[in-house]
Amino acid sequence: MRWSQYFIPTLKESPADAEILSHKLLLRAGLVRKLTGGLYTFLPLGLRVLRKIENIIREEMNRAGAIEVLMPALQPTDIWQKTGRYETASDVLYKARDRSNKEWILSPTAEEVITTLAAGEISSYRQMPVNFYQVSVKFRDELRPRFGLMRAKEFIMKDAYSFDASDEDAMASYQRMYGAYARIFNRCGLRNFPVEADTGVIGGNLSHEFMVPAETGENDVVYCEPCGYAANIEKATSGIPKTAAREIGAGIEKFATPGVVTIEALSKPPFSVPANRQIKTLVYLADSQPVLALVRGDDQLNETKLMARIGAAAVRPATPEECVAALGARPGSLGAVANVPSSVKVLVDERLRGANDMTTGANEDGFHLRNVSIERDIKAAEWFDLRTVTKGEPCAKCGQPLKMQRAIEVGHVFKLGTKYSEKLHACFLDADGKSKPCVMGCYGIGVTRTMQAVIEQCNDKDGIVWPLAVAPYAVCITPLSVAKDSAVMQTAEKVYTELKDAGIEVILDDRDDRPGVKFKDADLVGFPLRVSIGEKSLAKGEVELKPRGGAITFVKAGDAVAKVREFLVARASETA
RNA sequence: CGGGACGUAGCUCAGCCUGGUAGAGCACUUGGUUUGGGACCAAGACGUCGCAGGUUCAAAUCCUGUCGUCCCGACCA
What we know:
Elements: H1 21-28, E1 32-36, E2 39-42, H2 44-63, E3 67-68, E4 74-76, H3 77-83, H4 85-88, E5 94-97, E6 103-106, H5 111-121, E7 130-139, E8 154-164, H6 167-187, E9 193-196, E10 206-213, E11 219-223, E12 230-232, E13 253-256, H7 263-266, E14 279-286, E15 289-296, H8 303-310, E16 315-317, H9 320-327, E17 345-349, E18 358-361, E19 367-372, H10 374-377, E20 381-384, E21 403-417, H11 419-423, E22 427-429, E23 435-437, E24 439-446, H12 447-457, E25 459-460, E26 463-464, E27 475-479, H13 487-501, E28 506-508, H14 515-525, E29 529-533, H15 535-539, E30 542-547, E31 553-556, H16 560-575
Parallel strand pairs: 3-7, 15-17, 17-20, 27-28, 27-29
Antiparallel strand pairs: 1-2, 4-6, 5-6, 7-8, 8-24, 9-10, 10-21, 11-12, 11-21, 13-19, 14-15, 14-16, 18-19, 21-24, 22-23, 25-26, 29-30, 30-31
The protein binds one RNA strand through strand 14, helix 14 and helix 15.
């Protein structure tokens, strides 16, 4: 490709609405342009990178035995209603109406469609295992689109769905995808690692996310280097000790705490109740029913864990008014000991098991209760892990201190079980003639997000440093003069033609610009190798090879093509 | 959805407080000089100051509303 005939609108300055580095570089290197918040046009170079990543994904999915299909982005609502996700995923669904006012859904994912396909097409265990995948545009009405392609309203996702006849087979399918994902992200040049994850609105019972470490990521990951444990903070557990039991004091005692409505205030004089001797009482509404979640005063509730435990379609924190309606008191004086209607579920964090000598709200504004012994005084409690792990706590597996890291989620694998196949009747006849629901798994990769994650991880002060496997072009030829019959341009044209004929992806910067402009642009865009051709070195019969971020080497002009191929082969073998 | 900031040329921004001729740098056009890390000189083109109301003799500037963008939050009682 000739640069002058192409479209690479680089920018010297970062547009004001880009906050993080990778977003700025996407715009500055001329890879994308924003249409409006969360919606981007891919320009030629950005599209090439996208295609590179897609191709890596296709190769590895095919290698893992998955089969490519393409499903509609516009989907009927009835199948979403059958799985219940018309309600549970309602927040992110883009809905559209046609001329007869019929409602449609713009696909945020495709479990409903693929399971409908399976329901019609799979009737025997002999047809499985089978794994369908597609690469397509997805739509999500994000709470807050941000950071360019990281969280967009419309994005490109690879989604795959496996169907198996048994749980063991489904596990094997899961492992195959897990392995394929590791290969995909490694080939993209990304440092990445898998972590245990919550299954959220998707459902299922086993899940891993593939994470790219980055301070700008939206996930917190807990990990243990010695034993390899790693989990999303939403899922992570630790071996932190339970609350120490003390001598059980006198019976429960109510005391006045006027104006004290926070853990912190109660921990100060005159009350001086340490946070770890307080019970934090949080009120949620699960499908309009109040639920109490109890964690220790110095712990944070992990809302994702709570959601998973409650299992209701819609869970949200109660408003102060709703707290009064449920318990008779406002936040700050709430508790699970006194005046709790029997209809109200009480979920208690495991760390509080056995705790006594605790203080909690009295469900009467301005009063608390002390000498509370949880297992004696809180009836009908259900025990779960509900707290959020913090850095430095002992690993549950090996006892070493846990570490924490911000990360970008680029892929997610789920073992779904039969949630969707049961609801959409994707059943088959087993060898013994019995009808059973298919056991499913689903597997997603954010293709556009992966692209930006690569930029976030691979850059320097001058711009992007593309890994060869996903670079828009492998080689940029930079003649310092473009005068038509100059020796420099003739050499550039010759090298260009030969590289092209050798099947190497090469761009010739034939713009009539000063060398500095071309160098800056080549660095900004981040081509892995630059071949610079100038009068001075050409007088010695030489051209320059400069790897992005590396040192210049001089080679004989006649050897240039061979040397370029050598470089590319060596570079390719580093990540293969 | 709540809080905050911001909307002025293609981009980055000044001007607004204290109302009175629409600005700079970069990019763009033409000519010339340059040519190994984002050149220089000269001339030029480019704006309903987001939009709609209001106040005023007069609004980019003050007021109200609205739309959009970005950031933080949306659990920790």
